[in-house]
Write a structure and sequence with these properties.
This protein has a single domain (2-230), classed as P-loop containing nucleotide triphosphate hydrolases (Rossmann fold), CATH 3.40.50.300. Helix content is 36%, strand content 26%. The chain contains ten helices and ten strands. The strands form two sheets. It has a six-stranded mixed β-sheet with strand order 6-7-8-3-9-10, sandwiched between helices. A four-stranded antiparallel β-sheet has the order 2-1-4-5, covered by helices on one side. The radius of gyration is 17 Å and the shape is globular.
Length: 233
């Protein structure tokens, strides 16, 4: 479904990515792992057209998207839950969800407000509240719901549970499991390796802008030294 090959990216004269390459198959959950500052967000921003790679290729469903603007990438069926949530603070929960709702891929059973509220009943209770009045956990639920309302084929989450209380993190992981079980492909960045191992099929570890390891959840769980080397603080 998604493939990156030899992606290099710069911020000015500073190079951030040095030939990143990996893939996400249909219905698969893949994680991007690594310490802070290693290139995970830049990789996601390159996929979404927020950062323009200097070289390499990004394809989605066989379509070259490397140089596409963000809105065209989104219209092809990629939904983003960005780092920091970035919900619309002066819109209500309902308005946030319907503001960008679409079904460009003409899904037979598109996501609806009722489906989002069924997954996140907390949002149903706050449906008329402004985005800036929500808790961090509620904002993350809203950001996920907003992305789902675009009816993507691939859902990308950058720092899925960063800064959230344990109970809220558990709620988010449960919802991502439901989304996975519905057949949606997911690419996720997070630091909670134990939870990611339960959720994901494969993992990609990035170190200093390069892919240094890929493998299954069983492979990652069994290799404690690998986790300490690339993921330990």
């Amino acid at each position: 479904m998604l493939s990156l090959d030899g992606i290099k990216a710069f911020y000015g004269t500073s190079q951030a990515l040095f030939g990143i390459g990996f893939s996400v198959k249909r219905g698969e959950v893949v994680t991007l792992l690594g310490r802070n500052g290693m290139g995970k967000t830049t990789t996601i921003n390159s996929i979404m057209g927020i950062v323009s790679p200097s070289s390499g290729s990004i394809k989605f469903e066989g379509v070259e998207i490397t140089k596409l603007p963000s809105f065209k990438t989104a219209n092809l069926g990629i939904g983003l839950v960005p780092e920091g949530r970035q919900i619309f603070p002066n819109l209500t929960v309902r308005e946030n969800l319907v503001a960008t709702a679409s079904n460009h891929q003409k899904n037979d059973h598109p996501w609806s407000l009722e489906m989002i509220f069924d997954m996140f009943p907390e949002l149903a209770e706050r449906v008329h509240s402004m985005g800036n009045l929500l808790s961090g956990g509620e904002q993350q639920m809203l950001a996920i719901g907003r992305a789902l309302m675009t009816n993507p084929q691939l859902l990308i989450l950058d720092e899925a549970t960063e800064g959230l209380a344990p109970l809220i993190r558990e709620k988010i992981w449960h919802s991502l499991g439901q989304i996975r079980d519905n057949g949606l492909s997911i690419l996720v960045v997070d630091k909670n390796v134990a939870d990611l191992i339960k959720l994901a099929d494969r993992h990609v570890i990035i170190e200093k802008g390069k892919v240094v390891w890929t493998g299954t959840s069983d492979d990652l769980q069994a290799d404690v030294k690998l986790q300490q080397r690339y993921l330990g603080v």
